[in-house]
Amino acid sequence: MMEELLPESVVAVESYGDDGAEGATLYPEEQALLTRAVQKRRREFTAVRTCARRAMEKLGVPPGPVLPGERGAPQWPSGLIGSMTHCDGYSAAALARATDLASLGIDAEPHLSLPEGVLDAVALPAEVGRLDRLGTEMPDVHWDRLLFSAKESVYKAWFPLTKKWLDFSEADIDVLQGAASGGPVLSGRFHAQLLVPGPLVDGERVEAFDGRWTVQRGLVATVVTVPHA
């Protein structure tokens, strides 16, 4: 699913159910982070890191621990950039060489409506208006959840470049209506206009991010890739 959204320079590995956690082991440094974690958290933590290590191997990089850094962002081996995501029954990691992309962010969510009140907390009025129009045209898509996922991917691509928080209200996301790409799969694009000064990439200010989305297998997935200038 993720590979369909990402450029060829990115390696993506994903797992469904408990496939990524079955028989997998953690490094001691990772295990130390889970001393008080419940079993569900342990499974998700293990599955997504197993995906990350498989992606490292595909890039020819020796696998190692993936530890959280500032604000929980994963710390990658030197020369790599990447992003991870997990939700109930799904885990994925995407990695690329830092020479190929400046940053990337991925997110996956269950294809369900957001809990009551969440959309009001994360969406700008203009975004809500656009979602209402999309909902009229394509009512089978949970556009509110798609917007939330897109904002998560934007933040994950933003933070490694800035080391700063980005509030939900600081990016205006225009989700572009997608089209069926075979069977029950829908896919499309989105544009995220940054409402605060954007990051510098190779000395040039980035004012917006572009991303892609898909809805399939009961999930909505979004990605953002930031190219070099």
Task: Give a description of the structure.
The protein contains 6 helices and 10 strands. The chain has helices at 2-5, 28-31, 39-58, 118-122, 125-137, 143-162; strands at residues 11-16, 80-87, 90-97, 103-110, 171-180, 186-194, 200-201, 204-205, 208-216, 219-226. The protein has a 5-stranded antiparallel beta sheet. Strands 1-3-2 form a 3-stranded antiparallel beta sheet, covered by helices on one side. The protein is globular and about 50 Å long. The model has no long low-confidence stretch (mean pLDDT 94).
Question: What are its keywords?
Answer:
single chain, alpha+beta, five-stranded antiparallel beta sheet, 6 helices
How many alpha or pi helices? 6
Span between N and C termini?
Answer: 27 Å
- Biggest β-sheet strands, sense, barrel: 5 strands, antiparallel
Spans of at least 5 consecutive residues whose pLDDT stays below 50 are none
Q: Numbering strands along the chain, what is their spatial order in the largest sheet?
A: 4-10-9-6-5
Radius of gyration, in Å, reads 17 Å
Helix content: 25-40%
Question: What is the overall shape?
Answer: globular
Overall structural class, as computed from helix and strand content, comes to alpha+beta
SSE arrangement, N to C: HEHHEEEHHHEEEEEE
Number of strands: 10
User: Overall pLDDT, averaged?
Assistant: 94
Into which percentage range does the β-strand content fall?
25-35%
